[in-house]
Amino acid sequence: MKNASKNDSSKKNAGYKAAEYVEDGMVLGLGTGSTTHYFIEKVGMRMAEEGIKVKGIPTSFQSLLLAKKWNIPITTLEENDIDLSVDGADEVDSDFNLIKGGGAAHTKEKIVDYAAKEFIVIVDESKVVGKLGTFPVPVEVIPDASRVVIQALEDMGAECEIRMAQRKDGPVITDNGNFVIDAKFSEIASPQHLEIDLNSIPGVVENGIFTQMVDRVIVGTSDGTKEL
Ligand SMILES: O=C[C@H](O)[C@H](O)[C@H](O)COP(=O)(O)O
């Protein structure tokens, strides 16, 4: 699913630009993925070089490890509100609707990103689309419900695959112990409605459509950034 190294300088430009929005004392939502990697890196560098102090709420085990690497103190939603969350996306449209979950982290990401006072999305140009839906919608599902959820998704017109692990036999297991079904819809007419409809299938934990929550989209290019 991932397109990790291809657009690295664009991802770095986007991640580093987002780190300019971080202020001393902020609690940050730390998204997941190869673009957010650069945001976390730059926040860590600013802490070391400028002496700013922040705390982070990771959205995955991957972002927890990265935060630890850069000495960003970890906190939780129990203890703190989030000032700013920064996260990547697999697709973003002109209304700032997103598909996320290419790294199977969308459930925690949605909790953290929705809870933030400000949410910035960082992408390279390949993620900007006219209409969502080329990228299949990741749907996290309780393992026992997989078959019936696939049936319900197919009834809604999707082609479905349980996401398979690499270097492990069998399905990807999320940080929450669940499976991910990648659901390819031929058309997503209304992201808002689909986001709600998918979550009303019993057994679905969360889906990767994010709507009505993004404040700013920073697009990294090979020589800088632009905003949508
Ligand atoms: O589950 C993973 C996340 O939603 C990522 O933020 C998304 O897949 C984008 O990742 P990347 O920046 O690696 O393309």
Automatic annotation (TrEMBL):
Matching CDD domains: RPI_A (cd01398)
Q: Which residues form the active site?
A: 109 (proton acceptor)
- Annotated pathway: Carbohydrate degradation; pentose phosphate pathway; D-ribose 5-phosphate from D-ribulose 5-phosphate (non-oxidative stage): step 1/1
- Extract one GO cellular component term from the record: cytosol
A GO molecular-function term, please? Answer: ribose-5-phosphate isomerase activity
**Reaction equations catalysed:** aldehydo-D-ribose 5-phosphate = D-ribulose 5-phosphate
Query: Under which main EC class is this enzyme filed?
Result: isomerase
Q: Where does substrate bind?
A: 32-35, 87-90, 100-103, 127
A Pfam family reported for this protein in Swiss-Prot or TrEMBL: Rib_5-P_isom_A
The EC number(s) attached to this protein equal: 5.3.1.6
User: In its UniProt record, which GO terms are filed under biological process?
Assistant: D-ribose metabolic process; pentose-phosphate shunt, non-oxidative branch
Keywords attached to this Swiss-Prot or TrEMBL record, sorted alphabetically, are:
Isomerase
Quaternary structure, per UniProt, is: Homodimer. Homotetramer.
Q: Which HAMAP family match?
A: Rib_5P_isom_A
Membership in a protein family:
Belongs to the ribose 5-phosphate isomerase family.
**Protein task:** Catalyzes the reversible conversion of ribose-5-phosphate to ribulose 5-phosphate.
Q: What is this protein called?
A: Ribose-5-phosphate isomerase A
Species per Swiss-Prot/TrEMBL record: Methanobrevibacter millerae
Instruction: Tell me what gene encodes this.
Output: rpiA
